[in-house]
């Protein structure tokens, strides 16, 4: 196991009816709040009215930034920063999925920063200061509710990059807020959560039994609950378990003491930057192909994955066969729940493979399980066609 320091300051407020604490939180955080949300799902579900009512009861002046796009754009972030500066906003409340939270994080660190907020996404600057941020999460997927990551798309340059920004001060997670998530977004969320675990599980670090078991337990819990939630979107316990898995998959618990990979996320972000496809859909296509491309770097790790997560019986099989059986089980699962399996599912052909491969590797080779140059990325993308 490697050395590590672990700190996570986000207060996680989980369960039915927990939205009520918002009033108290709002009183503590200041009189002027910027409410950030997406394309209207919170209005259709009734959550918007409840949030407004709690903020008004707390005596807040509420400004709004609606219309945050899935794959949130830099131009929207800049609008939010401008509004906060003009109106003297004290804190930000993000109500929505990962995109709304990520845009809110960018606004939170952009307001006190003199330079261009894009600097935080191009490794030109590190965020030192931020407005306080609260979140009400409505979609289980990214883990953004309890980490400091934020992923923003600069549509002018067709670049989609992650930056290290700010932790939410608090995040309210009521599984009932995820009942209305449509089937496709539920599937993408499941694939995203599993992919976060994969990025931190396929590693060459040895003697990490606890981290490995944490990771395997998240994967098994997601797998057990996936079909249940798809069969009944209002199954509270299935939604709750997937929601909690989403947070635990990317709140800093899994990577402690472990060398992590993250190449597949860079590849997916490059695809989204060019074609604007849903993040989890892209991952469902790319991850199994990445697995096939790299598994020989550490067959033992893939054997463990196959037997522990998928219950593959190793009897009579070679190491390669066991590893491949685990990868096939992953592919079969994604197909069974209705995730996309090929880039063609998004009408993506081979025209821009090289462009995407270059965009995935702006600073050179990516990944640690196997270092991937742009030629490797192009090869993996070709396998996805
Ligand atoms: O915009 P609205 O109308 O709210 O609709 C959204 C959106 O269309 C809808 N939705 C969300 N909650 C809903 C709902 N519809 C009905 N009922 C609800 N309760 O779902 C659609 C997708 O929302 P979005 O926020 O884009 O999804 P997700 O949470 O998957 O976030 C994806 C973004 O997060 C980034 C991705 O790259 C992508 O840009 N990521 C952020 C990470 C992080 N900050 O740590 C890590 C991830 O790996 C990921 O890269
Ligand atoms: Zn992701």
Structural account:
- With 385 residues, the protein is of the alpha/beta class.
- The chain has 2 domains: 11-178, Rossmann fold, CATH 3.40.50.1970; 183-384, Dehydroquinate synthase-like, alpha domain, CATH 1.20.1090.
- The chain contains 14 helices and 8 strands.
- The chain has helices at residues 22-29, 41-45, 47-57, 74-87, 98-110, 183-201, 209-231, 236-249, 263-275, 279-294, 299-310, 319-337, 353-360, 374-383; strands at 11-14, 32-36, 61-65, 91-96, 133-137, 149-154, 159-164, 170-173.
- The strands form 2 sheets. A 6-stranded parallel β-sheet has the order 1-8-5-4-2-3, sandwiched between helices.
Sum this structure up briefly.
The protein has 385 residues and is of the alpha/beta class. The chain contains 14 helices and eight strands. The longest helix is centred in the middle third of the chain and has 23 residues, at 209-231.
Topology:
Blueprint: E1 11-14, H1 22-29, E2 32-36, H2 41-45, H3 47-57, E3 61-65, H4 74-87, E4 91-96, H5 98-110, E5 133-137, E6 149-154, E7 159-164, E8 170-173, H6 183-201, H7 209-231, H8 236-249, H9 263-275, H10 279-294, H11 299-310, H12 319-337, H13 353-360, H14 374-383
Parallel strand pairs: 1-8, 2-3, 2-4, 4-5, 5-8
Antiparallel strand pairs: 6-7
Helix pairs in contact: 1-3, 4-5, 6-7, 6-8, 6-10, 7-8, 7-11, 9-10, 9-13, 10-12, 11-12, 13-14
Bound molecules: 5,6-dihydroxy-NADP and zinc ion.
Zinc ion binds next to α6.
